Structure to design on (71 residues):
């Protein structure tokens, strides 16, 4: 029961940063794009959702790269 709380706390703060980035654009389509960035083709969001615009995809990619989440 002596977990690594310091490391867990640091990781949790990183997750919060990523979640904030995902909320800069419509969230579910953002998840589709993140999967696509990782090489997983999940198709396109079904209505009433929409795909992200090119500008939104660029913003998402740039922010995730800035955080070091993507390579």
């Amino acid at each position: 029961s002596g977990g690594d709380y310091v490391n867990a706390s640091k990781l949790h703060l990183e997750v919060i940063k990523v979640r904030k980035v995902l909320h800069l654009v419509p969230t579910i389509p953002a998840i589709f794009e993140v999967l696509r960035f990782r090489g997983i083709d999940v198709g396109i969001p079904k209505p009433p959702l929409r795909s992200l615009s090119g500008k939104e995809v660029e913003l998402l990619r740039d922010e995730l790269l800035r955080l070091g989440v993507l390579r």
The mean pLDDT is 95. The chain has three helices and no strands. The first helix runs from residue 5 to 22. The two ends are 35 Å apart (CA to CA).
